[in-house]
Design a protein that fits this description.
two-stranded antiparallel ribbon; 25% helix; 301 residues; 7 helices; Spore Coat Polysaccharide Biosynthesis Protein SpsA, Chain A; globular
Length: 301
């Protein structure tokens, strides 16, 4: 049994201006996806499932060809009408149902413990090694994991960021994730400050653990997720709108005392590409990983 990598790739990258998942960022034209797949393979993952929209199928055929001889590749389609109940809610809706629904969309393809990542984020080798170890145990049906990054390693030089601050007990079990906004370092070596959920400006430690939606789940989680999605749909109001987000679904389960979720430590630097202006910095950081020997050049040998 090898764990599965579930890659959420349905976002078209509108703010970026194209399919940023396959934008070359490495010195040899590597995509940001290449590093996730490469690190997952080296960490023992046996299959990669990409959740995409049907209109992206042709563009993602190049993804399948690129990885076919390295890892089993499958595609799951996030469809608006793919709902466990109240399918009529999809009539007239244009936006996807959210990251929780994206995971639900892959339910028929997942039989082993699995990790969930975003396609357009660079998570670093340490994240996949931690997830691979957790998922290969394998976890019990009510055991989840979240990779917790040090806040210092997720800041942007281009302005403030929003992050989910992890609250844990002494054993690093997740008690909840609180969204903080306007997080930035005030000076080059000054304190890091942000705004918490209550609207208060607070100072944050550099080693505070934050969530970048890098999760590990047993296959049994999919049945629980379907129940949560059904509950979301039962209370859904078309006038108010809303999406079914994976972190909110997990947090609700934790608050109800159903699963346990361990926060896995990670020393890697997280890199994200939201706007095209982010590309130069990301490329520089990636190049430094090749220069330090973290990755061999070319990546795929």
């Amino acid at each position: 049994m090898k764990p599965t990598l579930l890659v959420l790739a349905a976002g078209m990258g509108s703010r970026f201006g194209g399919l940023k998942q396959i934008e070359p960022i490495g010195p040899n034209g590597e995509w940001i996806l290449d590093f996730s797949v490469h690190d997952a393979v080296r960490s023992g993952f046996g299959k990669a499932i990409f959740v995409i929209r049907e209109e992206m199928s042709e563009a993602f055929e190049s993804v399948k060809r690129r990885y076919a001889d390295r890892i089993e590749v499958e595609f799951a389609y996030q469809r608006l009408k793919d709902l466990p109940t109240r399918k009529e809610l999809a009539d007239g809706r244009m936006k996807p149902w959210g990251t929780g629904h994206a995971v639900y969309s892959a339910r028929d393809l997942i039989v082993d413990p699995f990790a969930v990542i975003n396609a357009d984020d660079f998570y670093g080798r340490d994240a996949f090694q931690s997830l691979g170890k957790f998922l290969s145990t394998p976890p019990k049906d009510d055991e989840f994991a979240l990779v917790g990054y040090e806040l210092e390693n997720t800041l942007s030089k281009h302005g403030s960021v929003s992050r989910g601050i992890c609250h844990t007990n002494a054993d690093f079990m997740l008690k909840g994730v609180e969204e903080h906004t306007e997080i930035k370092r005030c000076e080059v070596s000054g304190p890091i400050r942000g705004v918490n959920g209550a609207g208060d400006k607070i100072e944050l430690r550099a080693d505070t653990r934050v969530s970048l939606n890098c999760w590990g789940f047993p296959a049994a989680f999919l049945a629980t997720l379907e129940e949560s999605l059904s509950g979301f749909l039962a209370n859904y109001n078309a006038d108010r709108g809303g999406e079914f987000y994976l972190p909110f679904a997990v947090d609700a389960l934790i608050q109800a005392g159903k699963p346990t979720a361990r926060v896995l430590s990670c020393s890697s630097r997280w890199l994200g590409v939201t706007h095209r202006e982010d590309l130069p910095l990301v490329k520089t950081e990636i190049q430094s990983l090749f220069d330090s020997g973290e990755y061999e050049s070319p990546l795929w040998i």
